Amino acid sequence: MKLLYATTNETKIYNMKRRLENLPIEIVTPSDLKLNIDVIENSDNASGNALKKAQAYYSLTHLPTIAADVSLYIDKVPDELQPGLYVRRVNGQVLSDEEMLFYYQKLIASVGGKTNGYYVKGLALITDRGAKTIEIKEDEFIFTSVAASKMHKGYPLDTISIDKKTNKYFVDITDDEAKNNSNNFDYECINFIKDNLL
């Protein structure tokens, strides 16, 4: 079964393919279908933004479509500086990977150089049976102002995020470690797709 993942982020696509590798699902992307849609994400939660993306792509393709959006929360950071839904958009500007990494390194340094953080990811899945959404709180991790030596394209904050189970930067976790240490999001994402697609 084909499932359109409404994103052009290569790291997100790779992670979703890894999650679903044992299911009879083939992930296709907007790039595969030569689609490029600019979706206005103005909902007040992650699942609402995900639904807007999924609806836009489903209306063009009528393929089962999944989309995601994320909110970020960081301990010790004042409310007025909490990213929330605006992880990449700061002061009205969409940051590049490098700008985003620099901004968050400075932010974490301002609260002592190390703190906890977590993401809330919203998913939306549309099929011919209708639309379903879910919000999933990810496992808490450690944010540090000291960067690892490499970066995941499209996921620059993995460079300053440390997994509490392995005590490794997200960018240094191997595929085998990721499979053996499935997090709460992986588990709930897989079940959400199985329950509403298969």
Topology overview:
Blueprint: E1 2-5, H1 10-19, E2 26-28, H2 46-61, E3 65-74, E4 89-90, E5 93-94, H3 97-109, E6 114-127, E7 130-137, E8 141-144, E9 161-162, H4 175-180, H5 184-197
Parallel strand pairs: 1-2, 1-3
Antiparallel strand pairs: 3-6, 4-5, 6-7, 6-8, 8-9
Main CATH class? Alpha Beta
Number of strand elements: 9
Q: How is the biggest beta sheet arranged?
A: 7 strands, mixed
Helix content: 25-40%
Report strand %: 15-25%
What would you call the structural class?
alpha+beta
* Architecture per CATH nomenclature, i.e. the level-2 architecture: Alpha-Beta Complex
Label the overall shape. Answer: globular
Domain tally: 1
Q: Could you report the average pLDDT, rounded to the nearest whole number?
A: 95
Low-confidence stretches: none
Stated plainly, the CATH topology is called Maf protein
How widely separated are the two ends?
A: 9 Å
* Helix-strand sequence: EHEHEEEHEEEEHH
Helix run count: 5
Radius of gyration: 17 Å
What descriptors fit this protein?
two-stranded antiparallel sheet; alpha+beta; 198 residues; Maf protein; seven-stranded mixed beta sheet
Description:
It is a single chain. The protein is of the alpha+beta class. The protein has a single domain (2-197), classed as Alpha-Beta Complex (Maf protein). 30% of the residues lie in helices and 25% in strands. Strands 1, 2, 3, 6, 7, 8 and 9 form a 7-stranded mixed beta sheet that branches. Strands 4-5 form a two-stranded antiparallel ribbon. A hairpin with a 2-residue loop joins strand 4 and strand 5.
